[in-house]
């Protein structure tokens, strides 16, 4: 399939697909006239690339496991060589998720305690909240 078809099927801009190729994330065949010819497996590869980028992996790390992105077959030796790095990335994600869950719990607590209480609007002429114009308390 040509680059336009891959872009349509994955929702990824053609320029970004070319960038992925330059980074070694995709390796399309070239037709005699120079057009890129992508395989069906590249649709899944692009989706996996996008998911890994969203997870915070760099294109360099993704390139290291590029052969793992081609299909869902058994991992290659290249995949096994970066398992430690991927585990570290997963641990980083778990930590970030934990932090987000704590932040959500804190917001839920504030919302729960604040429900039923009117929130002051502050000084409408300055746009400042009421607590911003209150005199400072001595320390």
Q: How does this model look, in words?
A:
- The protein has 139 residues and is mainly α.
- Helices cover 55% and strands 3% of the residues.
- It contains seven helices and two strands.
- The protein has helices at residues 3-10, 14-22, 41-54, 59-64, 66-69, 77-80, 83-114, and strands at 29-30, 36-37.
- Strands 1-2 form a two-stranded antiparallel sheet.
- The longest helix is centred in the last third of the chain and has 32 residues, at 83-114.
- The relative contact order is 0.08.
- The model has no long low-confidence stretch (mean pLDDT 82).
Estimated structural class: mainly alpha
Task: Report the mean per-residue pLDDT as an integer.
Answer: 82
Tell me roughly what share of residues is in helical segments: 55-70%
Classify the oligomer.
single chain
What fraction of the residues are assigned to beta strands by DSSP? under 5%
Order of H and E elements: HHEEHHHHH
Q: What kind of sheet is the major sheet? A: 2 strands, antiparallel
Radius of gyration: 25 Å
Helix count equals 7
Approximate shape: elongated
The low-confidence runs, each spanning 5 or more residues with pLDDT under 50, are: none
Distance between the termini: 70 Å
How are the strands of the biggest sheet laid out side by side?
1-2
By DSSP, the count of extended strands is 2
Topology summary:
Elements: H1 3-10, H2 14-22, E1 29-30, E2 36-37, H3 41-54, H4 59-64, H5 66-69, H6 77-80, H7 83-114
Antiparallel strand pairs: 1-2
């Amino acid at each position: 399939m040509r680059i336009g078809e891959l872009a349509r099927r994955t929702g990824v801009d053609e320029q970004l697909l070319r960038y992925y190729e330059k980074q070694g994330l995709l390796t399309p065949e070239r037709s005699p006239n120079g057009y890129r010819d992508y395989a069906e497996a590249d649709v899944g590869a692009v989706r996996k690339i996008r998911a890994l980028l969203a997870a915070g992996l760099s294109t360099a790390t993704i390139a290291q496991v590029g052969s793992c992105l081609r299909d869902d077959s058994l991992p290659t030796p290249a995949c096994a060589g970066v398992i430690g790095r991927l585990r570290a990335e997963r641990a980083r994600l778990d930590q970030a998720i934990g932090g987000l869950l704590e932040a959500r719990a804190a917001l839920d607590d504030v919302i729960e305690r604040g429900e039923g209480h009117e929130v002051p609007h502050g000084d409408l002429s300055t746009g400042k909240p009421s607590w911003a114009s209150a005199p400072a308390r001595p320390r």
